[in-house]
Structures are given as C-alpha cells and as structure tokens.
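Protein modeling request. Please complete all fields; requests missing the sequence field cannot be processed.
Requester role: graduate student
Desired output: 3D structure, token encoding
Chains: 1
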Amino acid sequence: MDLAFFIPACFALNLAFGPSNLLALTHGAQSGIRFAMAAALARIVAFAGMIAASALGLGLLLTVSAAAFTVVKLVGAAYLIWLGIKLLRTRPETQSLATLAPTLPRALRREALVALSNPKAILIFAAFFPQFVPMESYWQSYAILGGLFLALELVAVGTYATAGRFAARLAASRMHWLNRASGATMVLFGLLLLLARAPSRGTA
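Delivered output (204 residues):
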C-alpha cells in the first residue's frame, strides 16, 4: 500500500469539480460553511457504504453489467437535471440568502441522493482502490484507504463551501446569478452523465 502515491491521487479525485462539490459550493453560499459541512455528512455516509460495497466486490456489478450502469446513470441524470431546473426556476425577487437556503434535512437528502445516483463514484472505488490494496492485508488496507478518502473528501467539502461563502459575500445582491449558474451547471452534469458509457469488461 503506497500512501505516497495514493494520497495526492486521491485528493485530486476529491477536489475534482462535479455534482457533489457543486452542492457544497451552493450550500456554502446559501447557508454557510458549517451548514455545508453538516449536509455533507450524508455524502460521507453514502460514500462509506459504497466503499464497503466495493470491498465486498459489489462494485464490479457496475463494471461488468451495462444494464445496471444504465439504470443508475439514468436515475442520477434525471435527479441532477430536476435539481438544476428547480434552481433555475427560482424567481430573482425571492432569491435572498434566507429564502434560497434549504433546510438541513433537505440538504442532507440532496447530498445523499447525488452521491448514490452517480455510477462513477462506485466505479472509482471499484477500479482505483484495488491498485493500492495488497491482497495479504486486503480488509485492513481497504479500511485505511477508505478512511483517508473520506477525510480528504471533508477537506474538499470545506474548500468548496468556503469558496461559495466567499463568492456570496462578494455578490450578496446578485445571489440569483450564482443560483442560476449552479442550476445550469447541475443540468449540464446531468446531460453529461447521460452520455457516459459503461466501462468495458476489461476495466481493472
């Protein structure tokens, strides 16, 4: 288990801009860094379950089954597009920080659904982790790598939430533009997910 290579490569994956980090950015702008960090706990729980599933070999299902990949992809894309359209349709005159902010239960639900409905996440755990897991200490190594991934994910959440809060303070009177940009980007992620192809059976 080569942590010197795993940690920077893993952190690059954590920091990659995608639907989950867009949520952290949006929640940070709307409700603050603490709120975004609290909401992201649902993502952490979802990812922990996905890491455990990959360790058990269930992640291979999406790798070898085009049908399973397609189902998860369609559900994920539909949810992202729906969430993006909902953000886009919010009226500018109602888009103050107070009215934009979701409740914590709703934010938790968003985070969990976005994490679970993205087939690429479990494919990362199924294809990326095994490269660093020695078979002689399989479970212990998977647990260590999983813990590191989740810790780095929280750092990424904090980074995006801070950026979102900073942007909100700079343009408090133009929050509707930030909200619309978030919605448009969410729709774009959904459309891109629709174009994603299932990995070949030869994927490691």
